[in-house]
What does this fold into?
Amino acid sequence: DAGVIQSPRHEVTEMGQEVTLRCKPISGHDYLFWYRQTMMRGLELLIYFNNNVPIDDSGMPEDRFSAKMPNASFSTLKIQPSEPRDSAVYFCASSRRGGGHNEQFFGPGTRLTVL
Amino acid sequence: AQSVSQHNHHVILSEAASLELGCNYSYGGTVNLFWYVQYPGQHLQLLLKYFSGDPLVKGIKGFEAEFIKSKFSFNLRKPSVQWSDTAEYFCAVNANGGFKTIFGAGTRLFVKA
It folds into this structure.
């Protein structure tokens, strides 16, 4: 099992640019989560999907953030336009119903730096 | 609303010292409880979990945690830490049957060799 795959691992961009983060969940997992980790705010849940449908997006900070899951094996988190305060590590995680009482498996993260 | 509180943001210990990291949660129903560990530069991985049964659960690398329902606590312990335990530790909770998991702010543990 390859685990959760995220790309890119590192992204450096300039303020105002569009950023797209990608995630491939573990095959067979029907839940996908996007988190943001910063020193100041810790680990925050941004949004999660079940069977490709967004269930709770209350953690998405503002309209500049959007997430999609066009199929069971792929999700994107987009920031447009990006701002320096968006600099963080973004983690994707996946889970499956009945699997370990909803244990989540995390990807390696994308470290985003917005200059 | 669910919340998780971790008592210490930073802990510094010498090798062979005993460890206890505090975690309290706020939720009125039945919960699943987790401790995740994040080694430097790596992603979060599960250390141990509790969902029912024996309130004392054992995880990988000699870690254990005790669920005390009356105190809404799930403290992590290890009798003798090693330098390789240097990491950030996150307590997390979700409602039984739920998938939205709330994480604590994390505790950074540094073990001096």
